[in-house]
């Protein structure tokens, strides 16, 4: 038996390859799916099945892409009219080599959500692992708000049943393999730990301590999670089957002059450098989203109907940037700036900048009583756990639609947890003409490390 | 929390790096230990502790080597006079970042064997993983015969207590991380599966079904496992602390002429090619041990007081060969044949050969009643599970000391499971002057696949 | 200015990337052409031109493939009706960055052959390098027999003029970059050295010492070079523009059972292992061509209308094998044997073998006067420089069509230079039912190294 | 014959491996010399000789380091009392395989400078390549000012004789391989082109157009080149034999807190990020030298008696930084900041910054007549070729010793060619308390690209 976890950073999406005796199955493949075929080939195996745990909302599923380069069949759960693949029924069994995979219908996150219980018949009939998709995570459970507030109580009730009556009864000893790790937007508080069992979750998962069904439902219904606009696009893609890529797009390299010409067209510029590099010099009207932030934040700010132009610290980052974007369905990556921001300013192209400010300097300004509009762009939960006195709160994903709440006639100080999300917000404000922007280096983490006061 | 399994092929030895908040611990490091330092550096962590589960008998432990390139402290179990490192007491606790590691004294495989129970205090006080060394494997338990037959009952009794009274009570939900996987000589029937929990072992591990202590002890005392001669060397090394290597040895490249000169000195030639390549042409008097077989079989045939000369299919295999050998304490690798066997015969150096025979041809000869001495060199257990009618049995590791049982005046047909161990035996016989040797391609596996008869 | 030589092993084909100020040109690209795009991208350059020196006969040119993934235009020489690209005139100039490339019509190898003289205008107007295609090599000149014996005198005369009146007058100081290195079938005796100048060739190239035109022509007309059958296919491809691959084919992995089924179809099996591995055990009716021998010998023995099945020493060699084959237009690679020959015989599939014999044993047999048919399969030139007394000569490429000259009723001993080409021949004989075949390990090299006698 | 150029970036130092028939020679190895041993091993060769062209002044030669891991002997030129290796005489010959290397005494850059003429005896007796060290470059000749102004005329005279009477007479057709490419401080105007011949230099090299000896000497004596302080250290090292490293130093990783503690000791902080990243936030009192600038500029600003602490954009750059530093003899690299500048400011450590200004904004300020001190830190030659009106000139390497010429009471605008050297200067000024510093993004290149005026 072989078993591999493939983790896609940023989205914290986890897919799995399981194989036995020259046959393999892939669970929830990502769109850049050569990795699975390579593993199978290395092991001398053929991928026979592609199993989806549910119609994902946070990334483009790679099932059809993988089907295209293998002989595998796609399977997903019942009750939704997928335009591709086959439907599994509850308790249906699939066999590869000496392994048995049992499909368990575990709705709650979505109606068609499936879990997959794996037994190694060489060792015994007992389930050894369960793949729970977005039903049960390590340290959290799946969100139940995707169908809107009206449906949330029903979904929460379903999820309770799925977890307490289908999954946990498989046994404390069963190893847990969810579809996401820490950082995903499919759960609020997924643990950074990557290994767990049903027994450990039963004992340690805070949500599973709510063993009374009504308490569980109440908790879930009251949960407040962000809903990025690109989710709608993903749901449509993953219902109908997304367009096939066949291979990673290879964006063109543009000289500064060509890049500037492309900017005249229906394009949007994304600069993937870190805040301390972006602040000092960047192309006017570009969005700042640091490289590893693309999976989580591109879907908030980038439109699907414009071509994307990239500015990077280093050309070597292009492949990562492309992977991050196509996983979200941004296939229109026109090109990147050859030579980066250095080539841009050497060609005397117009640069823009805003200020980076240390927490100490911010503190000084506050003590002096300078006139500042302090904007906290973290999540509601982070905000509620403590913020800087006098700050206003708008989540980074909602800044662009709430500009009317941000004054233009004073200095704007933006902060988040470490200064990266606030840099996105700062770039949005700059793009909209705000000209006295300060991003706080280190933001709340540095503020607390400096021992400065927070209020709740 | 980071967690990495480092598997050393062949020995099926598994070591672990666990880290939290810039601190890391390594359990049972191997001798070529740069891998651990590289992981720690990649994660921005410092290795603070090196934990040994026991004085290993099957490989050179890398604790001192790793201590030399880090600031880590070495710890091992009580009751044996290690010449390096520090002694842990039962129930002693170690902390790194948010993790707590509790030392459990679990004798049985050896007297000083320790297990290590890990808790993630961020998630709760419960044990989430246990590192059991050679006490409990997936699908088997540690051998209890290392101190000889007189001590075996006592060790088996200790092991029973360690497993049933210390380890299993940690809980079904605890993830199991042993020191070996399938293929190790430290257990007889370790599973190929790499993931398990205490609950799964309780349910599926065949030895753990012997819940009555006397039954468990009887089973262990009757167990027959091979004891390679190099174990003694390893025990001495791992008690006193093995010599430091600082870096991998870089064997010299020898032209055929130089190689032949080296052969005149106190050297031994090891040819790491596959049987179908070795049979047709090899250097006279060389041992055949296929590359991946070095970890398991070098310790049976290679002396420690001679320099080793290597012949390989491909120069690229040199690093693997060197790693395999130094893990067993064979530090004296003089060099390798530049250009391999092809360079040797192009220089008109003397070559030797023996025959490769298919199972079909062997069957024909048997049916015709040809005069053959058929030698089965598999383990006793494999032999007892079925062999070719009329064969004699000598384990590959014992062939060189039992030549008197092998006739010189007839054709010798050697077989094992697939033809690789029998090639070792064939090379030994050839070295000792036997001149009508046949190695069976595919051996017992092919014999059975062809549908030919076996007897028990 | 950047300059890179891309050498394709086996064919000894050399292509070039030259770039200046964000623009690049590629000369004679190979079919697996991603390498050029990667270099250009790494340097921040765009490939603007693809220059062909001539319609190649020994490999599939990659111009159209490269054109497909870049914005480059293809150019080749005049006087032949290419179905793609543009035609250059003699003395036409192309500019990239600060470089000037002047096209020189240098017929002789073929009528449309071009050379390209490069000047770096930043340094001066003088030619610094010349790319001579198959007109002038290091140590040899291009063959002039491709249009048949009737045209050879005319082509030789043209080549004389091209070299002595167009190329050498560029100046002794000009660096020479031909389209092939040692080992190519486009010249008889190309040097292994990779660096030269026109002055060095004028002084050292043996053919250029024939400064009298009639002597030069006589020498070329009398030259005897082999003409592999696949040349015809290449000429057609490179005239019409070969089919586009878009990416490397990914052959399927076949289990021994599936492989055997595929063998029933219109397929041919190629085993790329070394002779000492192939001799001992191989699949019946397979061709032996060692991996690095594929570029030179696949075109002699493999048909274009059958699917190719591969057997390799190591799965890692697949990509090389595929590259070698598609460069010759063998796009129909059905798959490879999963697990190699070991998996085959473990599944008890039928194996075949023939004998490997050392030069010492061969000498013994000859001294004893055993009845042997000794077959030398080297080139005519090698044969004439000395062979084993009593041997017959048939070039390896002609063995399959000359079986009537090889007796079936005695032992056949095959030799070549080192034992690899003779292994091809041995596999052909075996395939045709000869059953007492001996391949000589080390062949003529070993024979001479042993000090045994050769006759001329 | 094998031939490889090993180019060490930054220093633009070029070393060579030449091999034939299992023997190899290395010319001017660098200190991190494993690369040569790896090439030799890959080719199945032994390095027999290490040839030095001269006692280098700009890097630590790796001869002793390479001697230590091979069996090679070191050779250098006559007339200077080297404390290691052997002395060659003029016209002495060395043979490896079929190659002959003739030592030519070619003083001028230094008294003991040697060139090495290579002939391939298989092809003929003529010289095919010459390795000229620092005597003759592509597009320039070696500097003759290392012994001071009094000796310069004598050295220039020697160099003239070496080039015109020893090297050029070898023949126009000879391929030229110097010890440096463009960017080296050992010649003023070495071409970016990497390939040349003696004939091409005779025709195109500007200095070689001065064929009258007195004109040549006058030109060389008037030449003004910078002399970095670390040259003295290199000369001493390369005379006595530098200390052996055995392997690359592995700097420790420091948390921000530990890093700050290290800063209290005898240390100096070097930040290798690009100007647009450094300007916005950096550790107070750190030097800015961008990564690829280390080989050229570390030797100007870093002392040898302090430990070095590194701040990098990315941990992956550590190996390059270490290589660059040890090549200059900076073996005391204490450690690097774990997590980079981001970790620093998240821990609320004190950050510093200065302004980045575009050429457009600078122009605006000038037009408005703002009070600015404009400092040009380029070389004298660049300055003389055109600078911004009103600027003052101090070479970047001399800024720290000329602070008295820079006013403290006004804004200081620093520029160079592209903004990287000026960032070094800006960091030096900041370190010395200047607090209104502006570095010009794109500097003179951008200024010119914008079409703004320069004066001479």
From TrEMBL, chains A, B, C, D:
Listed Pfam families: Lactamase_B, Rhodanese
PROSITE patterns registered for this protein in UniProt: RHODANESE_3
Signal peptide per UniProt: none
GO molecular function: hydrolase activity; metal ion binding; sulfur dioxygenase activity
Biological process according to GO: glutathione metabolic process; hydrogen sulfide metabolic process
PANTHER family, alphabetized: PERSULFIDE DIOXYGENASE ETHE1, PERSULFIDE DIOXYGENASE ETHE1, MITOCHONDRIAL
Name of the protein this chain belongs to: MBL fold metallo-hydrolase
Biological source species: Methanolobus halotolerans
């Amino acid at each position: 038996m072989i078993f591999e976890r493939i983790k896609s950073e940023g989205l914290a999406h986890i897919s799995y390859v399981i194989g036995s005796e020259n046959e393999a199955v892939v669970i929830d493949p990502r769109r850049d799916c050569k990795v699975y075929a390579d593993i199978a080939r290395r092991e001398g195996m053929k991928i026979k099945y592609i199993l989806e745990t549910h119609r994902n909302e946070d990334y483009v599923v790679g099932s059809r892409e993988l089907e295209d380069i293998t002989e595998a069949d796609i399977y997903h759960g019942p009750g939704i009219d997928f335009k591709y693949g086959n439907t599994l029924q509850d308790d249906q069994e699939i066999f590869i080599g000496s392994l048995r995979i049992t499909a368990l219908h575990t709705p709650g996150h979505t109606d068609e959500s499936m879990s997959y219980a794996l037994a190694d018949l060489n060792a015994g009939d007992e389930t050894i692992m369960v793949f729970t998709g977005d039903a049960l995570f390590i340290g959290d459970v799946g969100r139940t708000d995707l169908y809107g507030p009206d449906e949330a109580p029903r979904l929460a009730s379903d999820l309770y049943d799925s977890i307490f009556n289908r999954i946990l009864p498989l046994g404390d000893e069963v190893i847990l393999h969810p579809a996401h790790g820490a950082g995903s937007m499919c759960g609020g508080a997924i643990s950074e730990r990557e290994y767990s069992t049903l027994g450990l979750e039963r004992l340690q998962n805070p949500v599973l301590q709510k063993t009374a069904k009504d308490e569980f439902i109440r908790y879930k219904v009251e949960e407040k999670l962000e809903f990025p606009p690109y989710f709608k696009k993903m749901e449509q893609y993953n219902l109908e089957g997304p367009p096939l890529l066949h291979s990673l797009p290879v964006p063109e390299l543009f000289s500064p002059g060509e890049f500037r010409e492309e900017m005249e067209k229906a394009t949007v510029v994304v600069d993937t450098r870190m805040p301390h590099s972006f602040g000092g010099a960047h192309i006017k009207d570009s969005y700042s989203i640091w490289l590893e932030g693309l999976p989580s934040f591109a879907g908030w700010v980038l439109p699907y109907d414009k071509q994307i132009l990239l500015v990077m610290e280093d050309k070597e980052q292009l492949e990562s940037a492309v992977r991050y974007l196509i996983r979200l369905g941004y296939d229109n990556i026109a090109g990147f700036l050859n030579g980066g921001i250095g080539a841009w300013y050497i060609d005397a192209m117009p640069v823009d900048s805003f200020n980076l400010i240390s927490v100490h300097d911010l503190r000084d300004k506050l003590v002096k009583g300078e006139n500042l509009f302090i904007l906290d762009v973290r999540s509601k939960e982070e905000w509620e756990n403590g913020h800087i006195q006098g700050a206003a709160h708008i989540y980074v994903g909602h800044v662009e639609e709430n500009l009317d709440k941000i004054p233009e006639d004073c200095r704007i100080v933006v902060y988040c947890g470490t200064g990266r999300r606030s840099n996105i917000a700062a770039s949005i404000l700059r793009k909209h003409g705000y000209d006295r922007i300060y991003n706080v280096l280190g933001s709340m983490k540095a503020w607390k490390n400096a021992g400065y006061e927070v209020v709740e």
